[in-house]
Protein 1
Amino acid sequence: MPSRSPAKRAIKQDRAVKTRHDILNSAITLFARRGILATTMAELARAIHMTPGALYWHFPTKEDLLLAAIEELHQRFVASFEPLLLDMVKWPAAKQLEAFCKHVAQFLQDNREHGIFYGMVGAEAAENTEDVASALRTALQVYVTAIQQIIRYGQEKTKEFRTDVDAQTIANALIFGNIGLVVQHNLFRETLSYAPIVQSLHQVVLKGILK
């Protein structure tokens, strides 16, 4: 079932566009830190120095705000891949998969709250808000499918990867493993470095599927 789209107001002025952008940035940060249930629209309005009425003009409900935040993060992540895609299609499958994994890891390292948002919202929405859970599943499935296609290319075309591994399972493990490691690192950030643990995950998976 397709997820519900967030309610949108007609935005014509540059100032209104910037305001919406500021709201989404603040919402992503608050939801990542506190989750869905603990974050209120009134609290968000205070964080961005806005009246609740003005906030509700942009986003009539908290669910609309969550859906818009998921859409915004998805667009940012997809856009971050654009410089890499033209080169990747020319490479062997193993090099494509390694580059994809490195990019995901770097993106989440540079945008830590994006990964934490996915983890926090995903955990709560799965039990409480089906429209939000569906939107998050749809966005994450895009990344899973991209990795799945690379693995199948390596299995069927370039013959670099073992055929006794399931491409969909490995793709899910990589995407959700990365999100889980961001959440774990946030908990242990005083004593644990992010880069070595995510590199270990990628090395295990990449070496494990090579022939």
Protein 2
Amino acid sequence: MKASDFDFELDPSRIAQVPATPRDSARLLVARREGSDARHARVRDLPQILSPGDLLVLNDTRVLCARLHGMRGSGGAVEVLLAERLGPMRFRALVRPASRLKAGEELSLEQGRFVARMLDRPGETDDAEGASSPRVGDWRLELMPGPAAGLEPGADPARDLDRLLEAHGRLPLPPYIDRERGGDPRDGLDRERYQTVFARVPGAIAAPTAGLHFTEDLLQRLQAQGIGLARVTLHVGEGTFKPVETDDVESHSMHAEQYELTAENAARINGARARGGRVIAIGTTSARTLETCVQPDGGVAPGAGSTRLFLRPGAPLRSIDGLFTNFHLPRSTLLMLVSAFAGRERTLALYAEALREGYRFYSYGDAMLIL
């Protein structure tokens, strides 16, 4: 299997720069895995498209305002992207520029509202099997409220850190969403719309973009039609949207992402399937979580931890009966996951249909439902 088997041409003008308003007005390409036809609808039409007894699985991760700008002690400008939470105040982060950074060095970020203390490079002290050399700019650090954070004496800094990040950090928008360097003229819009309405657990550095289409009203209408909801948590990391850079798909290594499926939600999912309903993953991140937890009979078991699961054609997805997803990057692991569910040729044919019909692509783009 070659990464070039999942390539397609996309004019940059088709990459959505702003979301549809309202959220559920986005276009929706509806197709079955078997067959050659597709129909065109809107996300708001889902209550009429789905059936009573179906169950949607939502990813309730919340995007951290994880991009921080600041200064080194030497006076040089620096940017920090908090890529993975390792503890209440410890993170794995990508730091730019990375040259001459040293363990123990402190960075002043966002006008002194945060202080980052560099700890070590991932891979330098890891004993875990498979540990590799650190990537350029990859550091472990401790992030603390700084002198300009305005905390009261005796305040718990770990407790207030997420609140401070929400207030003073910057959203880590994907690079294909073009915003003016040094400022974001749509900052208010992005802060609202680059989060799902059901975002609950802070930890992601990218949104589970299929979920961006749902409104509170749409969720209520779905439930009124007898369509159930369950939730998983998968904290989307920087590797999720990264294209496969070698043509040999098997040589690609996935980044680890933290997930959780609670016993309550596992019971909802298994119960829906036992009653004859379809389990529909809202987004590739929900599908990855369910496939991480899948059992031999197709049911799911509760669990939490780290997953590096790479879903691609050759092994069927056993935990889901439908996939609601955005249109993804060429050669990406997300496109390969969709192809694992629907087949490569069928998936690329649906992408060609979307291109002919003027659908918008990527995070703020339109959606596809495959049943």
Protein 3
Amino acid sequence: MLIVVDTNVFVGACLGTGASNAVIAACLRGEHTPLMGTALLAEYGDVLGRAALFRKSHLTAAEREELLDIFLAACQWTRIYFGWRPNLPDESDNHLVELAVAGGARRIVTHNLRDLQGKELKFPGLVAVTPAHFLREVKP
């Protein structure tokens, strides 16, 4: 399944959060294909540079960078040719919806559901879900 993995899920995996770990691991095993675009990649880079977020991480900065490199190798690069501007409450999250629409993803996996609800534009078949909910959905 094509999915968009929000940065907070990747951070959760770096911190050892169970459901986040499982989502990233499933992507690395090729069970799901995460989409990646310019804005999301920039956000990943910015977030990984925030040392304070990772004080409780068992991974070093170098290991987090290596994990990101491996994750990026599993991603499908997706160009966004049209900005839909779904007008989310948090403007900085619009790019997640645009990436999902451009790449044909059915799920945005995030811990931040509240900021992805209430969009003015609706896209049938596209749903934002938590990592735990996503894992329950795709469980064989």
